[in-house]
Design goal:
The chain is built from ten helices and no strands. The chain is an all-alpha fold. Helix 4 runs antiparallel to helix 5.
């Protein structure tokens, strides 16, 4: 057979294009995918998916590409994957991984601002509620520390901060009461 003599990506590609209705196309696609997989690069998998988006191997190539991004485990890599394959199950997982990385960074930061920024950036993250609770607790701890130490907060700033904390506590109580009904 033609594709067996040209056991290269280009040889298989040429065969599939020249003989799209051949009964050997499926075997040629599988063999061609194996060559792309042997290279194991995101660019290679992307090229395969771009050339043959409807082939059965395309979803396998997308998954293999995602696993390479996941191995790197960096936000830009996940964003790159999402931009290429937005409507895939792997894209959903990539979004979750971005949330995990960003939340971990926010927790490591001192103070409450990073946690509030996490909430602004990712309002649908699973960690949203936990980030809010941690931010609230860090802010409350900071206020208690400053008022004990007699810091240079003037009376208006102290009252403003305490009212914000109390409002947050009231919201938690209200949520609790509503949930019990």
């Amino acid at each position: 057979m033609f594709y067996e003599k040209n056991n290269t990506i280009d040889g298989f590609d040429e065969f599939v294009i020249k003989f799209p209705n051949s009964p050997d196309v499926s075997a040629a696609m599988t063999a061609m995918y194996a060559l792309y997989a042997k290279n194991n690069t995101t660019d290679g998998y992307d090229e395969f998916v771009k050339k043959f988006p409807n082939s059965p191997e395309a979803s396998t190539a997308i998954t293999a590409s995602y696993m390479l991004y996941k191995k790197e485990n960096i936000i830009p890599g996940y964003r790159n994957f999402i931009s290429k394959y937005p409507n895939t199950p792997e894209a959903y997982d990539a979004i979750q991984q971005i949330h995990i990385i960003a939340f971990s960074r926010a927790k490591k930061a001192s103070g409450f601002v990073a946690l509030e920024e996490f909430q602004r950036a990712f309002p649908y993250a699973k960690q949203f509620e936990e980030a809010g609770k941690l931010a609230y607790q860090r802010e409350l701890d900071g206020i208690k520390k400053r008022t004990k130490n007699g810091s240079d907060f003037d009376a208006v700033q102290r009252v403003s901060r305490l009212l914000r904390v109390q409002a947050s506590q009231a919201e938690e109580v209200a949520d609790y009461l509503i949930a019990d009904r």
